[in-house]
Amino acid sequence: MKNRIINVKAVWDEEAHVWVAFSEDVPGLATEADTLEQLIEKLKIMIPELLEANGLLDNNEEKFFLRLLSERIEMARIGM
């Protein structure tokens, strides 16, 4: 069986100071966490639950791979 890769995008919310995650591969996925590490742990729990709730799990599927694409914009100055 081919291994499934779930693509998740994480964007830093500067105002709330949290990482916000969403995915077109997982209907209903929207969550946030203070760090990327915390976000990954939440996603490992939430994604299988949401896939099952949406009837998107293959009966033989035991695992999946999570591809987290993160984006954070920071300002840097020359000559600091």
The parts where pLDDT drops under 50 for at least 5 residues are: none
Beta strand %: 25-35%
Order of helices and strands: EEEHE
Main β-sheet description: 4 strands, mixed
Strand order of the largest sheet: 3-2-1-4
CATH topology: TTHA1013/TTHA0281-like
- Summarize model confidence as the mean pLDDT: 93
Distance between the termini: 53 Å
Per CATH, which architecture? 2-Layer Sandwich
Helix content: 10-25%
Q: Give the number of helices.
A: 1
Total strands: 4
Structural class: alpha+beta
What would you note in describing this structure?
The chain is α+β, with helices and mostly antiparallel strands. The chain has a single domain (7-71), classed as TTHA1013/TTHA0281-like. 22% of the residues lie in helices and 31% in strands. The protein is built from one helix and four strands. It has one helix spanning 36-53, and strands spanning 5-13, 18-22, 30-33, 65-71. A hairpin with a 7-residue loop joins β2 (18-22) and β3.
Question: What keywords describe this structure?
Answer:
80 residues; alpha+beta; TTHA1013/TTHA0281-like; four-stranded mixed β-sheet; 22% helix
Spell out the blueprint of helices and strands.
Layout: E1 5-13, E2 18-22, E3 30-33, H1 36-53, E4 65-71
Parallel strand pairs: 1-4
Antiparallel strand pairs: 1-2, 2-3
Kindly summarize this structure in a few lines.
With 80 residues, the protein is an alpha+beta fold. It has one helix spanning 36-53; strands at residues 5-13, 18-22, 30-33, 65-71.
